[in-house]
Protein 1
Amino acid sequence: MAELEQFREETRAWLGENCPESMRTPITSDKDICWGGRKAELSPDQRTWLARMGARGWTVPTWPSEYGGGGLSKAEAKVLAAEMRRINARSPLASFGIWMLGPALLKFGSEAQKKEHIPRIARGEIRWCQGYSEPNAGSDLASLASRADDQGDHYLVNGQKIWASYADQSDWIFCLVRTSSEGKKQGGISFVLFDMATKGVTTRPIKLISGASPFCEIFFDNVVVSKTNLIGEENNGWTIAKYLLTHEREMISGMAQENTGLDILGKTAVQAIGARNGILSDGLLRADIAQFDVDLAAFTMTLERVRDEAKAGQSLGAASSMLKYYGTELNKRRYELLLRIQGLDALGWQGEDGVVARDWLRSKANSIEGGTSEVQLNIIAKRILGLPG
Amino acid sequence: MALVYTEEQQLLRDSAREFLAERSPVSAFRELRDSGNKDGFSRQVWEEMTELGWAGIAIPEEYGGLDFGYVGAGVIFQEMGRTLCPSPLFASAILGAALINRSGNASQKQALLPQIAAGERIVASAIEESGHHAPENTSLVAERTDTGYRLSGSKCHVLDGHVADTLIVLARTSGDPGDRQGLTMLLLDAEAKGLAHRHHAMVDGRNADHIELTGVMVAETSILGQVGAAMDLLEPVLDLGQCILAAELLGIAQEAFERTIGYLKERKQFGVPIGSFQALQHRAAILFGEIELVKSAVLKALQAADEASPQLPYLASVAKAKASSVARETTNESIQMHGGIGMTDEFDIGFFIKRARVAEHTFGDSSYHVDRLARLKGY
């Protein structure tokens, strides 16, 4: 306990000296989020903050220090997070390398692979993107067809990926490729890493119904990938892919959690529509908002309970599927209600006028990306309820 | 407070589950119903429950209770929901005891609480005058006399009123039906002169009493709490009741759901278990998530009850609203997924839909509590 208190004092002092003032202000635009990487255009303070935190491994506080992580215990990491919150410090680095690839590399990578990639993830030097979905492999991801043909010491990769977030701004990709067409389709997939600057890789941004988006298509035309960049064994990539998807689901349900401060629809509606005797004039809308508030409250409590149960060593197993399903469906409901509250005023398209409409449209993807709602229900039915087939 | 059950509370759950499996399984409820038992519960099982201390679970130690708190009480009710165990525990040990403990004077508490805790006295509360929860609409009148009050009017859906020794009657001492002010609680002997009971059998096999009061005389000392201000005393206690009913509804939903999942794995049509059909799998998976949400809302509300949190009204309504609608949905789906056999009286699944509805409509259904939440949030 005393050691933890000492750690708190030291951390507080260090953050006080090393976190630039501008890194203690709220994030107001996408530019304020630091994704790192070779192409990053960072402000001097962003650069300093990332470098200082990266040098200590505090961008990834609990990862082992031999690979550039912070080597902190869970308790110390909690102290660090609390101390950062205390001064409103921004996260020094947003990164798919941290959220998705890193945990999988730590578990499945070779010593050489960990030494090569993990420190560069921790320092934000390389920005990663994900090569999973393909035009004909969405919910049925295992039917992916991008081929990696064995050429002795390297593979030759050909095919196409889709829905890769920020692929056009990323340096490297972690990618699922087919190395065998025999037997079960899951058994012929491998997990490889390669540089997006390699000859034969091209990207194209995708425009959505909500306008511009971070999503891209990626095309591979005879891309040479060294076999040293194969993670785990050949044809064993599906196991790694599933492990990584669990992390992604947790991340998405965590985003739903950040929205939970927004249960102010009722009051917004009173302002927009008016009230009689303190009761929203539109009775049908009022009932739907109130039902939403009940569900949102119960969902928020469930996130709290799952966290507390995890701390107490109890596990909810495939809970991430349930949270992902419910969190994204709630978010879609929230935007539909917001549209009803604001009416035509919510349906502008240019500049500030278009924010609600674009967010509303974008929310439709919540229950598609990271495994559709229907796929989550399949997982619950089979893995939790043990239903056959 | 962490949103998990403590080790003590989990031990209580284990022992409650064991006791109920042994002494009050669903088959015991069926026997009770088939025998036409007028009490609506087993006196023998009730005595054993009180020996376990359950009747004193939410009563302070100085009055002979266990003072184990509402999370503990909720654990017991969740398990009783699973086996559909009927008993006067809710009416007497939760509502009656809390009304007396919070509103009573020293001599009322001393006289009544130890007897409730020991199961020697059953106290029922006469609140409703229609099928919809609306205590402020009370018209049963208590007129001032030289020595006390004269009560005239009627009450319905008095839980366990037919087996009660003492009634707590919500009466109007001033104002008109609909006024929040002017209501008063009075203690009344269940056998008082001028009091007529009309037994009313309910769909869940339990009983609700309808009572008629014709010039019933009570002494001034029978006033419970302050004259004219009963709503301020009653509402927080009803909130405790909502939390407990939500816990029971959770148990009902869990049991009906687990039995249904078992049936989906076992029942074959077209040569395969019907649980292999995605049309049923997705509906089951959605119910699973809904029940997880109810678990969280119920525990949160029960903890707020123990902490006397100012958030209790809001949390109690969230829990009751969510538990009610999920228990409704789950029991409806249970019947549908069981198909024809689910419609037969011989099969137990029908018991759950019946109890779920009565529990939902006791002290405000889902709509009532969703509306209350909206008012509390200012819209």
Protein 2
Amino acid sequence: MTGTVTLPEPTRTIDTSGKLCPFPIVEAARAVKALEPGAVLCVISTDPGIQLDMPMWCKATRNEHLATVREGKVFRSFVRKNGR
Amino acid sequence: MNVSRTVKAIGLISGGLDSTLALALVRRQGVEVKAVNFYTGLCITETQRRKGGRADGTIPQNEALRAAAELEVDVEYVDISGKAYFDMLVHPRWGYGANANPCVDCRVFMMRRAKEIMEAEGAEFVFTGEVLGQRPKSQRRDTLRIIERESGLEGRLLRPLSAQLLEPTIPEKEGKLDRARLLDISGRSRHRQMELAKELGIANWPQPAGGCCYLTDESFAKKFFDILDAREAAGAERAIDKDDVILLSTGRHFRLSPRAKLVVSRSEVENALLEHHVAGRARLEAKDVLGPIALVEGTPTWEERLVAARIVARYGKGKDTPKVVVEWREGELQEFYEVEPERDEARLEALRL
């Protein structure tokens, strides 16, 4: 992440640390389903694959992938639920 | 023909070319599609990802997600890796293919689950990327029919790539799908699929590589049947579980005797994986030199413990030293065996699975 990007405060955060493909996405899908349109979910993951998976899942499901940020061995993905 | 936009279908996708094309063919008829990918724990690519990716440091992409993203189709993962699935793998009604792959039973299992999803979602049919005659066991005309009948999806299981060569499905008969816009592909050649991919603007599909399932892998199959046979010989149930599947795809495996098996890690990632499966097994590691973590399951004799220690020593940094001390830890028990690393390759190969 560059210093110029400001990410919104997530409405909800889920921690999928230790879980591997495809379970971070499975849990993210479940969590997004329970959110109101426009709400932001933060998914914490230790699976490097989430850098590829989250943008693709968001494109498929028409949610907005805001960013996936790496902090050491941990990744934080920010997703805004679509307004459908 | 005008197809109602309210028609909904469940598409089973692996992310390979055929299922991606099937998805595109159904979508272009205006059908609302929900894509489903079944998680079995037996996908080679997923396992590669779990182990940190390829040797060059890149991470293989999730092809089902890629396909759904490319076509902007809602996708859901469904975990079927439970006891019922593993029992089916061990006791297939329609038998195995060339290795440990009970493809017909596996398809029936998946289609039954797909039927449940279809009903829950209010969808009218299920479709797949199966192609008549493409695979010797599961994609023959008779087995496609068995899969349809046994799954309870009679008339509601569409194979868009071969539809014109098969009986019309209910949505075709009801005019909800235009049969003329489905295809008549058969056989193993991918030529027509590649042409169609160009026509539909589908790019980046993975090269066909004979499937991504461990059960079709000869080496995996050897280990799969070994563990079942060993359990049966020991009077235990002929069964496997999730832990077994992870261990069968991890490390080097050695059958020490009908009573005992050794699994030796090949990397740091595999070390970490084995550490999660120590319960109920003995854990081995060289004491004063770097080396792999290994697990022994079963009830080894004293001699077999020493053989296991020698093999563990052989794969560590002490392999060229006269003696290596190997720690044997089993619950509260901790012992140290000073052994000569195994240098007899023929003996090693005789034990290797």
